[in-house]
Design brief:
alpha/beta; eight-stranded parallel barrel; six-stranded antiparallel sheet
Length: 723
């Protein structure tokens, strides 16, 4: 049916309330007067006339003119068109120019360098991921493991002659690899259509079109479906902060500022060469709300990582004095962008409370991952996760330092713990940090090759045990030496080298596989990522040894002990306090020979001693290999042990009592016993050892304690802590 001026969907679009605008905007198959064809609708409020041109009409600017509807929306029905037909809008401006514009709502597009839109019917794909979708709905990510593998589809793996693979070919390699490596999710750099490979997808022109570089929309659905069926979630990078100034795109769509702010002091990022969306304009809000929800619904995406949020929030972002306009209160906050983000997240979570909305926000803006509440600057932005950019900057600064100088920068590895629960953080080691001469992860490490590999193992273990969810850029997991480059495949050949270097890469990959599996197996490392209840310091201040130690706990309070030695010095004899008496077993060590280590450290369980340390009554003394991290667990608990100073008087009292009793008995029986019996009241042996040496060492032996105080009787003493 034709959309009229009274149509509710059109009214919602114009009012900024539409969250599925693509269902009536753009191009869709339709039947009019018994004829099959396609109906087109586009928003061009300043246009004098708009027409559809394409292969089907010889690219005529006037052959298929559109009719105006309310609110600057234009419409036309064209019979006889076929899927994959290419088209653009011929936008006639009041000044007489004719602009050839791609469809902002197109579902498919030509592969660059072509930039026309293509007709495509999204219906018909048969999904097989219902089990995953049911699991997702019942398992909120807050108390579940989240270990993300960041992927650029164009360069993760390529053909032998360095050509990009299709969605389906990528899936054949990517799905089993991610599963084997133990990552829970993949995060894809933008797959929204974009003209320039060098932008990595972050300068987007098609907000509803999966890039045709790798195939059709149904091919991309297949890739997501295969990942889901393997139990792997999918996150997409999404860019509502800005768009490029390509002539065929959103830029001055009808000859004037349309999707962007009209004032260049608000509407342009000069440093990036892009335009900023007008977050106060209703039609733009409907466009962006709908794009976000589209990927979550049409492609079953599990979350969006929203790029460049900081640039949206601040009017002076990247601008000097005089180049920006204060808000109505004289501040530098973009109130319209704040309101937009709050409304965006509200719409998303009202429709799908089990998805992720992840903010890439690099400033100290408060309550980014808090509920919107009352809204405005006093409310949260409504995301449920936020990248911890501060942690990333600190840790990358630290790991590049010569170990000698790390003692003067100890806060780089400790400060993040003190604000770790102010937001729901994701700890990222992302693509931005392995490009533009910043060096790959392994090449950031100082020292010999052996020390570099050890450094990667130690710092990744530190990352996995640190509170917060995790993200790692592809290639880091097998020690790629070269920086990531979007035009070439990862250096998979390193794993195939038949020499010592190849063995090192294979062992590093084995380490990542093992430590990721360890992370998944231990809820202490992810059940309470966003609460102080899941973390406790043991040692935060030993800067001279470049060493830290802390506890991670699950919901039941069961702890793991994590100890990191970021120096090239063996720390055998290193003592730390522990929360309970018992035997502590090293569950995971980065110095394992299977990972390329030397096999040093604590091979046997370590017994705690009553030696108060770090505010704890019990302590253990460890062997910490150079540049390593290890995780311990109390695998056998001991009953509480008394201090020697307290035990001695009790033993003495007991001995005196025994002596008095024997003397009295001897005196009572002296009249009846023969002379030999009179010598027995105080035998020499009893006099020599009223407090036997063995009794001094263990006045309350373990076996003796178990009898009078059974295990069940000890439990009430622990219950107040749980309460």
């Amino acid at each position: 049916m034709a959309f009229t001026k009274d149509n509710e969907a059109l009214a919602q679009f114009s009012a900024g309330d539409s969250v599925r605008a693509q269902e009536f905007m753009g191009a869709h198959p339709a039947v009019r007067d018994g004829q099959e064809g396609w109906v087109f609708r586009v928003w061009a409020p300043h246009a004098k006339q708009v027409a559809v041109m394409g292969d089907f009409n010889g690219w005529s600017e006037d052959a298929n003119p559109m009719e105006p509807l309310d609110g600057g929306v234009w419409e036309v029905f064209i019979p006889g068109l076929q899927q994959y037909d290419t088209y653009k809008y011929a936008v006639h401006t009041p000044s007489g120019r004719v602009l050839a514009k791609a469809d902002p709502y197109a579902f498919h597009a030509e592969t660059r360098p072509g930039n026309a839109s293509k007709l495509y019917d999204l219906s018909g794909y048969q999904w097989g991921d219902q089990s995953w979708m049911d699991y997702r709905a019942k398992n909120p990510i807050y108390s579940r493991p989240l270990n993300i593998y960041e992927v650029h589809l164009g360069s993760w793996r390529r053909t032998g002659d360095d050509q990009m693979l299709s969605y389906r070919d990528i899936g054949k390699y990517l799905v089993p690899y991610v599963k084997e490596m133990g990552f829970t999710h993949v995060e894809l750099l933008p797959v929204t259509e974009h003209p320039l490979d060098a932008s990595w997808g972050y300068q987007c022109t098609g907000y509803f079109a999966a890039t045709s570089r790798f195939g059709t929309p149904h091919d991309f659905m297949w890739l997501v479906d295969q990942l889901h069926q393997a139990g792997i979630g999918v996150i997409l990078d999404w860019v509502p902060a800005h768009f490029p100034k390509d002539a065929f795109g959103l830029y001055e769509f009808d000859g004037e500022a349309c999707y962007e702010y009209a004032d260049p002091r608000k509407g342009e990022h000069a440093d990036w060469g892009t335009r900023v969306f007008d977050y106060g304009r209703y039609e733009v809000r409907s466009f962006l709300f709908s794009s976000a929800l589209f990927w979550l619904e049409q492609y079953h995406i599990d979350g969006l990582r929203v790029d460049a949020v900081a640039s949206m929030l601040y009017l002076d972002y990247g601008r000097q004095d005089g180049q920006w306009v204060p808000n109505v209160f004289g501040g530098h906050e973009n109130l319209e962008a704040v309101d937009f983000l709050q409304a965006l997240n509200t719409h998303i979570f009202n429709a799908h409370p089990d998805v992720m909305m992840i903010a890439e926000e690099s400033t100290a803006w408060p309550r980014v991952s808090h509920p919107v509440g009352e809204g405005g600057l006093e409310g949260g932005l409504g995301f449920n996760l936020k990248w911890n950019m501060g942690w990333m900057n600190d840790i990358l600064h630290y790991i590049k330092l010569d170990p000698y100088f790390r003692q003067y920068n100890h806060k780089d590895i400790t400060f993040s713990f003190f604000y770790a629960f102010s937001e729901n953080f994701v700890l990222p080691l992302s693509h931005d940090e392995v490009v533009h001469m910043k060096g790959s992860l392994i090449n950031k490490m100082p020292g010999t090759d052996e020390e570099k590999y050890a450094g990667v193992r130690a710092f990744y273990t530190y990352m996995l045990t640190h509170p917060g969810k995790k993200l790692l850029m592809m290639g880091s997991e097998f020690g790629q030496w070269n920086e990531w480059h979007y035009e070439h495949s990862l250096d998979w050949h390193l794993l195939d080298m038949d020499n010592e270097d190849g063995e090192r890469h294979r062992k590093l990959q084995a380490f990542f596989k093992a430590v990721n599996a360890f992370y998944l197996e231990h809820p202490e490392l992810w059940e309470l990522d966003f609460s102080w209840e899941g973390f406790e310091w043991i040692e935060a201040d030993d800067n001279q040894a470049n060493t830290i130690a802390f506890l991670r706990k699950d919901k039941k309070g069961n702890p793991l002990v994590v100890v990191c030695n970021f120096s090239p010095v063996d720390r055998t004899g290193y003592t730390i306090g522990v929360p309970a008496a018992g035997t502590y077993t090293c569950l995971f060590s980065t110095d394992d020979p299977a990972f390329g280590g030397a096999g040093r450290g604590d091979q046997a369980p370590v017994k705690s001693q009553y030696n108060p340390c770090h505010g704890k009554e019990q302590s253990i003394t460890l062997a910490l290999p150079p540049m390593s991290a290890a995780v311990y667990k109390c695998t056998r608990k001991f009953p509480p042990r008394r201090k020697k100073a307290e035990a001695a008087p009790k033993a003495e009292k007991a001995a005196k009592g025994t002596k008095s009793k024997k003397t009295a008995l001897a005196a009572k029986g002296s009249k009846k016993l023969p002379a030999k019996a009179e010598k027995a009241p105080l035998p020499k042996k009893a006099e020599k050892a009223p407090l036997p040496r063995k009794a001094e060492k263990a006045p309350l032996p373990r076996k003796a304690e178990k009898a009078p105080v059974p295990a069940k009787a000890e439990k009430p003493a622990k219950s107040p802590k749980k309460a």
